[in-house]
Write a structure and sequence with these properties.
Order of helices and strands: EEEHEEEHHHEHEHEE
Shape: globular
Number of strands: 10
InterPro entries: AAA+_ATPase, ABC_transporter-like_ATP-bd, ABC_transporter-like_CS, ABC_transporter_ATP-bind, P-loop_NTPase
GO molecular function: ATP binding; ATP hydrolysis activity
Organism: Nonomuraea glycinis
Largest sheet: 6 strands, mixed
Radius of gyration: 18 Å
Strand order of the largest sheet: 6-7-8-3-9-10
Strand content: 25-35%
Number of helices: 6
Bound molecules: adenosine-5'-diphosphate
Keywords: ATP-binding, Nucleotide-binding, Transport
Protein name: ABC transporter ATP-binding protein
Distance between the termini: 24 Å
Length: 227
C-alpha cells in the first residue's frame, strides 16, 4: 500500500491558552508500496502523532493523507502496530496471542491455529507456541508481538520504537529478523526510532524529523550495498 502525506499539520489545543500546540507542521512524505521507511527524530518531535494520523486515531488539522491514492476520511490503516511495550495477553499462550490477530477476521478455529503457528515459525519461535509470556525472554515476547501483528495481515506494518526496551544484542537479532520478514512478506513498513544507527541500518529511505514542531528535514536514500 502506498502512503502519502500532503502538507499535513497537526495542532493540539492547549488548555487555558488561545494558541494551539503544533506537533507536526507541513509534513509531506510518501512511502511506496513494499518500501521500508524509517522515521527518525528526537523525542517529542511528533513521530507517534504521525502514526496516529495513519491509523486514524487522530485526524490532521490541515493537509491530506492518501492511502493508495485515496484520501482518508474516517478510520485510517488497519491496525498492525508493534509498540515498544508489546502488551501481550499474559493469560494466553504465544500461539493464542498470535491467534488473537485472526479472531477479528472470522477465520475458522483450525485454520487460525495453523496460521498462527506459521507466523510463530516466521519469527523464529517454532517450539514455543504453548509458552506463556512470562516464560519467554523480552526478545521472544517482542517476536510474539510481531507475529501477532503479521497475523492480522495489515496493509502496512507500523512500528513505534519496537526494540527500544531491548538489550543491544537482542535488538540486533530482531533487526535481522525484521529485515528477513520484510523481505519474505513484501509488506510496506513504517518504522519509528530515535536512534539514527537503527534508522539507517533498517530503512531503504530515512525520513529525518526536526524537533517540535515536527517537520521533515530531509529524506535520505540508503543504498542496499551499505547493509
Ligand atoms: P514522539 O513520538 O516523536 O516522541 P509525539 O508525537 O508523541 O512525539 O509528540 C509530539 C508532541 O506533541 C509532544 O510535544 C507531545 O507532548 C505533543 N502531543 C502529543 N499528543 C498530544 C495530545 N493528545 N495533546 C496535546 N499534545 C500532544
Ligand atoms: P533473542 O535475542 O532471540 O530474543 P534473548 O537473548 O532475548 O533472545 O533470549 C534469551 C534466551 O532465550 C537465549 O539465551 C536463547 O537461548 C533463548 N531463545 C531465544 N529465542 C530462541 C529461539 N528462537 N529458539 C531457541 N531458544 C531461543
Amino acid at each position: 500500500m502506498k502512503i502519502e502525506l500532503l502538507d499535513v499539520t497537526k495542532e493540539f489545543p492547549v488548555r487555558d491558552s488561545g494558541t494551539p500546540f503544533t506537533a507536526l507542521s507541513g509534513v509531506s512524505l510518501s512511502v511506496a508500496s513494499g518500501e521500508f521507511l524509517t522515521l527518525v527524530g528526537p523525542s517529542g518531535c511528533g513521530k507517534s502523532t504521525l502514526l496516529d494520523l495513519l491509523t486514524g486515531l487522530a485526524t490532521p488539522t490541515r493537509g491530506e493523507i492518501r492511502l493508495d491514492g485515496v484520501p482518508v476520511t474516517g478510520p485510517g490503516l488497519d491496525r498492525g502496530i508493534v509498540f515498544q511495550q508489546y502488551a501481550l495477553f499474559p493469560w494466553r499462550t504465544a500461539l493464542a496471542n498470535v491467534e488473537f490477530g485472526l479472531e477479528a477476521k472470522a477465520v475458522p478455529r483450525r485454520e487460525r491455529r495453523e496460521l498462527a503457528g506459521h507466523y510463530l515459525d516466521l519469527v523464529g519461535l517454532t517450539g514455543f507456541a504453548e509458552r506463556y509470556p512470562h516464560e519467554l525472554s523480552g526478545g521472544m515476547r517482542q517476536r510474539v508481538a510481531i507475529a501477532r501483528s503479521l497475523a492480522y495481515d495489515p496493509a502496512v506494518l507500523l512500528m513505534d520504537e519496537p526494540f527500544a526496551a531491548l538489550d543491544a544484542q537482542t535488538r540486533e537479532s530482531l533487526q535481522e529478523e525484521l529485515l528477513r520478514i520484510w523481505q519474505a512478506t513484501g509488506k510496506t513498513v513504517v518504522f519509528i526510532t530515535h536512534g539514527i544507527d537503527e534508522a539507517v541500518y533498517l530503512g531503504q529511505r530515512v525520513a529525518v524529523m526536526t524537533p517540535a514542531p515536527g517537520r521533515i528535514r530531509e529524506v535520505v536514500e540508503v543504498s542496499f550495498d551499505s547493509r
